[in-house]
Amino acid sequence: MLEKILLLLSLSFSVAEELCKPGAAEGYKVRFSIKTALGDQAYPWSKNEMFLFRAALAFAMRDYTNGEEFGVSDIHPCDETERVSFWFVVTRPNTTDLVDKGTVEMAIKKSRNRINGAFLLTDQTLEFDGIYPTLAAPVSPDTPPWLIVFGVVMGAVSVGIIALLVYPLVQRKLKKNKDADDEDSDEETGVKTAEIGANDGIYNSTFSDDERFTQM
Amino acid sequence: MDAESDEQKEITQRPKWDNKIQYLLTCIGFAVGLGNVWRFPYLCQTYGGEEFLIPYVIALVFEGLPLLHMELAIGQRLRMGSVGVWSSISPYLGGLGVASMLVSFLIGLFYNMILAWILWYFFHSFQSPLPWRDCPVNLNHTGYLTECEKSSAVNYFWYHETLNITPNIDTSGSLQWWLVLCLASAWCIVYICFIRGIETIGKAIYATATFPYLVLTIFLIRALTLPGANDGLIYLFTPNWETLKNPKVWLDAATQIFFSLSLAFGGLIAFSSYNPQKNNCERDALIVGCVNSFTSIYASIPIFAILGFKANENNNNCQNWNILTLTNAFNIGVGNITLENYGEWLNYLNKTDPSEVESLNLKACNLQTFLEEVFIVTCLMMSDILLTGLICLISFAVALIFTLGSGNYWLEIFNSYVGSVLLLIIAFFEIIAVAYVYGINRFNDDIEWMTGRRPNIYWQATWRFISPFMLLVVFVVYVVIEAEKQPTYNAWNPDYVHFPLADVLHYPEWVFAICVLLSILPVVSIPLVAFYKFMCFLKNYTMNRHNQNPYANECCHGEL
Fold this sequence. Notes:
The complex is a heterodimer of chains A (216) and B (560). Chain A has 216 residues and is an alpha+beta fold. Chain A is 53% helix and 8% strand. Chain A has a four-stranded antiparallel beta sheet with strand order 2-3-1-4, sandwiched between helices. In chain A, α3 (47-65) packs across α4 and α3 packs antiparallel against α5. Chain A is rod-shaped and about 165 Å long. Chain B contains 22 helices and two strands. A two-stranded antiparallel sheet of chain B has the order 1-2. Chain B is elongated. The interface between A and B is medium-sized, with 30 and 33 residues.
């Protein structure tokens, strides 16, 4: 009995080993850059972390396929290195049929954020070789902001031009009113000087200066 | 008698500056420009640092300051703009003023387009993140647009979003409406500044001439606090005496001081004509010249600091990329390879698996190379109410050519062919006109009357011999060197095989004809006007000879 179990185990193990190898057709290479992401707070890589990875990936497969009961044992890693990188393949639950690359990719893409979150990493520090992160589309508001600034600047400039065009006209008008007042005061002073001239001393005809007032 | 009363009338009617500061700021604002901030640091970098200062200072002393003093003095004495001044020295020289005016108009056209670009960037600066920081994503969100990835986000924003540039000058494209808007606002701002002549210019200049210095100081402080700034400054100040042996350095210094001071535009003559006659123009010339040169040096310091920072950043990125590639390829633990032990690791890996290392195509990272590379090359070497409005409108309409898809290429043409040779020719004729047609002695008397001092031997020597000779030499050498060069231009072509390198194309025939036309047309007015005046003179002379009236003399003309 024991021998049978051992044989089965070794067979499944070897099958798994055969399923997963570097460069496997349906496999993916994963790379963890924990020190780059977390620096001093980096956690060491261990078997437990590997278990978490398998669990996270199983969750991703379940989520994508809507119910197929993937388990931790359906994720087969191999070729672990010091870099913290390894290959893995996914098999269907309770079989040794490999899940095709496309399905795995879609599953990972759908739950990428959740997988990243489990390891406190990002798209750049937890890399799946061949699966490109979906980039967030840049926010583009309805009215481009530059048009608003343009409107403000042009509004100010237009007000300035109109002010500079209108200001001298207004000044001229004020000056005209002021000139009208000035003319009245000129007449008064004119009259005054004539009076002063007439009352200035006694007019002596012997020494009269006929040229004093202009002959008309 | 008549002339004096006319002069009195002129003096009372001609507008004048509110105070000396306005006049000096206007001259400084006119002289200081892109040439100081952009072209001077570019030349410093090309010729390896501050050694460029030596030919620059020599050119300033023997070419720049004499011409500057002469323009300010002649404008102040004759109290007329450029066209009037040269006509009054000699009717045959009227074309000189017309040529100055035409050159100023043409240069004003494309300079305001540069202002339109600056406004575009200004309008876009009020958002976070800045639009030129990130590349836009492609349709299925898997990556960035290839054109942007290959070049850079900043280049993509400039060439694609701002200019929407066509692959070559033959393809004109259409008017880019956003550039038209920016150009319109640039011309409106110009209009508001000179709507009332020097009345408004004088007020506006307080802000427009001083603000650049404020911005430069902010840049200086920011640049000096960046990591790696030291490398840039060391690069700037390390002597490289070899460059002084290169004749091109002296040529570039001579042309640079010339364009930097904005001589031969007629603008300085116009500004000084609004001065009172008894004004010390010698001191003004020295102030403007020295402030202009100081600004050039002051501007080059933050630029080189930023250059050092960028070069360091690029170098670090390059080295980190190498490290990451090795780490991933050989599955080494992260952090094992550092900048320090990179060399050892590389040797070790090369011994164990040389073919793999070779296949990685590791980059060669050298700080010196980055320092020389970073600085990008296309450096731009440089009222009446109704009348001013009309000028603005016409200029705006003609300048619309720069808002086309191929607009940037046309701007480069204007920049290369309108500025350089014409100004040299005009300046040469100016100094010959003043020194030999107007008469250097008469000029000396005028200056003595205006400033109270006769110009000393330095001014005499430079006006009479040194400056005209230098100008002639510079002009000849410049033409010879430019004629040897093939007229090519750098095109931005995303489909080019070696993109993001520029696609170097030849100008088509019709474009080259336009270039030649632009170079020749403004100065054609000099001989044209002289010829016209000579024809008038001949006509009068022959008419007088035919109608010999024995009773005609200067005092009374006999009735026929």
